[in-house]
Each structure stands twice: as C-alpha cells, then as structure tokens.
Design goal:
Layout: H1 3-16, H2 18-55, E1 61-66, H3 76-80, H4 86-92, E2 98-113, E3 116-125, H5 129-133, E4 137-140, H6 145-150, E5 154-157, H7 159-166, E6 175-178, E7 181-189, H8 205-208, E8 211-214, H9 215-223, E9 232-237, H10 243-257, E10 264-268, H11 269-312, H12 314-322, H13 327-364, H14 372-398, H15 402-407
Parallel strand pairs: 3-8, 5-7
Antiparallel strand pairs: 1-9, 1-10, 2-3, 2-6, 2-9, 4-7, 5-8, 6-7
Helix pairs in contact: 1-13, 2-11, 2-13, 2-14, 11-14, 13-14
C-alpha cells in the first residue's frame, strides 16, 4: 500500500465514521484554539508595548531617577548630597555608547496670557529633547544650544497647550508670562497620539499638554537653584544591545560623582519590557496549560478510538499482511488516519482560535491578530499529537501475526 493509498483509505474511514471523527477532534480543536489565542494575545501585548515605547524614545532609552535613601539615620555625606543635577547629566555625555542626554527639571508654574491664567506643567529641557523623545516641532523651532547658553526667555508649546491658551491664533512670536516672566513662544510641537484600545484615551496626551523652556532658564529664573537639580535624566544608547553596558557605566559614573551614595537609580527600558513579559508568564502559563491539557485529552481519545478501530479491522490487517503488506505499510496506514484527524482538528482549532481571539479582544479592547506563524505552530502541534498518540495503535497493528488475525472471530 502506497502513501497515497493510505491517505485515501484514511479519508474514506473518516467519512464513514463522522461521529467518531468528531469525538477524536474535539480535544484537538479546543487545545489548538487555546494555544493560538494565548499566542495572539501575548504577541499583541508585546507589540503594543514596543510600539508605545518607540513613540517616546524606543528601547534604547535609559532613565535615571532620584531614589530616596532608606536609611533612618543618615551620615553627613548622605545629607550633603542633593540628588541628580544638570552637571551629572553633562558628565553622562562622556559615557561610551551614549549619544543623547536630556535632563528634565519639571515645575508647576502660573501661566498668564490675556484673560487666561492657570497653573501648568513646565519642563526645563535641553536641545536633545526632540531626539530623546522622538518629538519634534510642527511649527517654528525647538530650544537651541544658544538658548541654553544665554538662559533665553523662550518657550515651546505642546499642541493641546497651544490650542488651550491661544485658540486658533498663531502663538509663535507671542509672549506668554510664566510666573510673571515674559517668555517668547518660538515653536509648537507635533501632536502625539497613541491609543492602546478603542476607549478613545490618548496615552500620549500628557506630551501634548507640556510647555518647554531652556533648563538653564528654569534653574535661574524659576527655581533659583544654584545646585541645578533635575527631576530625572534621559539617555539614548546607540544600540539596545549596549543598554546593559551603558547602564553599568552610568551607575559607576554617578556613584563616583555622588561620593559613594546611591541616591539614584538607572532604569533600562528593554529590561522593563522583559520584566513585564515575566509578570505575564504566569497567566500565559495557565492558559497554555489548559490548551495542553485539551490536546492531551484529545490525544488520548484519538489513541483509544484508533485501538477500537484496530480491533474492528483485525481481519482486514491480517489479510493485507498475508498478501505481502509490510509492517511499515500497516504502521503508515494507521498513522495517516491519526494525522489526518488531528490535521483537520488543527485547522478547525485555528478557526475557533480566531473566534476566541476576537471575543477576548472585544472584552479587553486590545487588538490581536493570528499571524501565519501562529497558524503553523497550531498545525505542527496538532500533527505532533496525531503522530505521538497514533504511534502505539499503529505499531500494535504492524506487529499483528497474520495467522492469528485471520483466525480472529
């Protein structure tokens, strides 16, 4: 019996026993659907987080933040440290593999323009900010190195802030009073938008609501800060493969500058993404275990039904062996039937997985897509189940003594 004949025989047997075939495939269908759905959701979450990070600097971004000391009693050295400073940021530019450094000095200041008067978030930044955040002016310009050197009284507005203060008027060239200091508007930023779901909430609206001034002007004109303290420091690495190395270099540099006091923390965004994936692993493992259990049950059902089918076809197998069929041909005959059943189950499971995925995404408002790779994994998994659980009945049939088989019943 050739392989083609085995396939034809398997198809005929499947058509002849539709109910039995359905029982064989139920477990496989549910198992493949569960596995494919989990893979789609995991992949979707990872892609969405990566896309979001890419909108605000990408995975090459490192964040250095102030960290309060936990010691109840502090040494004189610890008390004398002021945390992160503008000078720390400038020193970080000498670290290998770092291409951009942008310290941020945030503040809440009073804005005044005509009848408009309201407190607003104002950030003191450097000229590296657009490269760090991938956030560039739509009109006008951003803060320049000359503005930093001269502590210029200039500011750049986010899109929402511009509309809120100036409405439809052109803001560039106008004067905006910040804590009573007149600042000339020199640019308006491109609008930033990113939506995790269909709720309509822009996850990047906070960027559109910003006002930017030279960090030197923030220190001199609004903070009176001779130490030039900053809230946090952003750094961009030339390649995310160098994140870990750059993190260690920055940590060593700041530890020296802070005289051994670790009142700061260096955060690696790519590591943060990996940690998020680890936190999701437990939930993913539960769903994958459910899918694997369904596949296991489906495989056991397939094996038992094939054994029952074998008992019904003992004489048929005996006749074929008596006519010269080899053990390998008999094995192939039963394995082909098992693989065909699980292959059909895999296809139906992928279709059901698509339905499951759409149902789940509608509940959590997070789009997910079943990719060709996931479909291939589903087919390969189902086929592997068919081969594994069909192997024992196939070998048992191949080892059947034709004389005993012909005497059966």
């Amino acid at each position: 019996m050739t392989l083609i004949e085995s396939v034809i025989d398997g198809v005929v047997d499947i058509k002849a026993h539709k109910g039995r075939t359905l029982l064989q495939t139920v477990g496989v269908i549910l198992g493949v659907a569960s596995v494919v759905t989990v893979m789609a959701l995991v992949d979707s979450g990872r892609r969405r987080m990566t896309e979001f990070f890419s909108e605000v600097g990408g995975l090459r971004k490192l964040l250095v933040v102030n960290r309060p000391l936990q010691d109840v009693t502090r040494t004189a050295l610890q008390v004398s440290n002021v945390g992160l400073t503008y000078d720390d940021a400038m020193a970080m530019r000498s670290v290998p593999n770092i291409i951009y450094v942008d310290p941020i000095a945030p503040n809440r200041l009073l804005l005044t323009h005509g009848s408009f008067q309201e407190e607003w978030d104002v950030d003191g930044v450097t000229s590296d900010y657009p490269m760090v955040y991938k956030f560039h002016p739509a009109r006008g310009r951003f803060i320049s190195p000359d503005d930093l050197a001269a502590t210029s009284r200039v500011c750049v507005l986010g899109d929402t802030t511009s509309r809120r203060i100036f409405g439809n008027d052109e803001p560039i060239g106008q004067t905006l009073f910040i804590n009573g200091v007149g600042m000339t508007v020199v640019g308006v930023m491109t609008r930033k938008e990113y939506f995790f779901d269909d709720s309509g909430r822009n996850a990047l609206e906070w960027m559109n609501e910003k006002i930017f001034v030279p960090i030197t002007a923030m220190h001199k004109r609004f903070m009176g800060d001779e130490e030039r303290k900053v809230g946090y420091i952003n750094a961009i690495v030339d390649d995310d493969k160098n994140n870990q190395k750059a993190t260690a270099e920055i940590h060593a540099l700041l530890r020296r500058r802070h005289r051994g006091v670790e009142d700061f923390e260096v955060m690696d965004r790519s590591q943060r993404l990996a940690q998020q994936a680890q936190r999701n692993q437990m939930l993913n493992a539960v769903f994958l275990a459910a899918g694997a259990t369904s596949l296991l049950v489906g495989g056991i059902v397939i094996m038992n039904i094939l054994l029952a089918s074998f008992q019904e076809r003992v004489r048929e197998v005996g006749v074929r062996k008596a006519l010269g069929a080899s053990g390998l041909q008999i094995t192939a005959q039963f394995l082909v039937e098992s693989v065909l059943v699980t292959f059909l189950g895999g296809g139906a499971g992928i279709l059901l997985g698509f339905v499951f995925t759409q149902a789940v995404t509608s509940l959590i408002n997070q789009p997910a897509v079943i990719t060709p790779r996931m479909a291939v994994v589903g087919f390969v998994t189902s086929t592997a189940v068919g081969v594994f659980f069909g192997f024992y009945p196939a070998v048992k049939a191949a080892r059947l003594d034709p004389v005993e088989a012909l005497r059966y019943e």
